[in-house]
Write a structure and sequence with these properties.
265 residues; alpha+beta; 5-stranded antiparallel beta sheet; elongated
């Protein structure tokens, strides 16, 4: 499914413009992924950013890692780029005067944490220093403009990267809208978020890209034609009420199928 989407064709048909690489806090050449499934590292707890925890690589897709905090369950997995600033080799926290913490929702009695920590690291495969890549520099200012195209992580299905458009810009924030979906997945994020990528990043990095939702191409083009037709004939489009009243988040498309076995989502 995802292999069938072509940015080239899409941009030509929609006459739209990709956001330039310089907008993004992303390496122009996606970093190599040297991790292996099962390796352990240190990561900040996404639900409690002040604590550093032990994480295990439980999946990967291109340069993105699917991580699970040791002592947590499998319902709080999260994804990070291999050049994320949230990831460090085992030992980094203590070297910097910190203490490794149990994850939020630690499954066992908190008093067992020290012995759990020792056990979980015993004989574990530790991610070597060579796996860790410095995060790319942060662009000095937000240079995104409304209407520019990008690729973005679907926060409700974080294993997915999808074609998207900048819907709005407000200081350091941009509004990410997903092409062909009805707005239920859209979100605000900082311009230097690591969840947004230049057009072509997926194919460069070996990360699959979802096709736009069902309302991506055909409907999109039809809407544009209707809009310009009604504008030139002085008619107000009455079809907008029928589309906005449909609240279902599911287009009839196979893209909703959990994509790759390795992610297990
Ligand atoms: N199972 C979900 C998947 C939606 C994905 C939307 N993204 C790609 C913007 C659903 O069908 O609702």
């Amino acid at each position: 499914v995802s292999g069938s989407f072509s940015w080239d064709e899409y941009l030509k048909k929609t006459k739209e413009t990709p956001a330039p690489q310089s907008c993004f806090k992303q390496a122009p050449v996606p970093p190599a992924n040297k991790y292996k499934i099962g390796m352990k590292l240190e990561a900040s707890d996404p639900r409690n950013l002040t604590s550093t925890c032990i994480a295990t690589v439980v999946g990967m897709q291109g340069p993105r890692l699917r991580l699970r905090l040791d002592g947590s369950d499998n319902t709080n997995d999260f994804w990070r780029l291999v050049d994320s600033g949230d990831l460090h080799p085992i030992g980094y926290c203590e070297k910097n005067g910190g203490l490794l913490q149990p994850p939020l929702g630690f499954r066992m009695n908190p008093s067992t944490w020290p012995s759990y920590l020792q056990k979980t690291l015993q004989g574990a495969e530790i991610a070597p220093d060579s796996c860790f890549t410095k995060p790319p520099p942060t662009p000095p200012t937000n240079t995104f403009k409304q209407g520019l195209k990008l690729e973005a992580v679907d926060h409700k299905n974080p294993q997915l990267i999808c074609p998207a458009t900048v819907g709005d810009v407000n200081n350091d924030q941009i509004y990410v809208t997903f092409d062909g979906w009805r707005g239920a997945f859209d979100y605000w994020c900082r311009y230097d978020s690591r969840d947004i990528f230049p057009v072509g990043w997926g194919s460069l990095s070996g990360h699959p890209l979802q096709p736009p939702g069902h309302r991506g191409m055909a409907q999109y083009k039809a809407n544009r034609i209707m809009k310009s037709a009604s504008l030139s004939s002085g008619l107000q489009s009455s079809s907008s009420s029928s589309t906005s009243s449909a609240t279902s988040q599911q287009p009839v498309t196979p893209s909703s199928v959990s994509p790759r076995g390795s992610t297990g989502a």
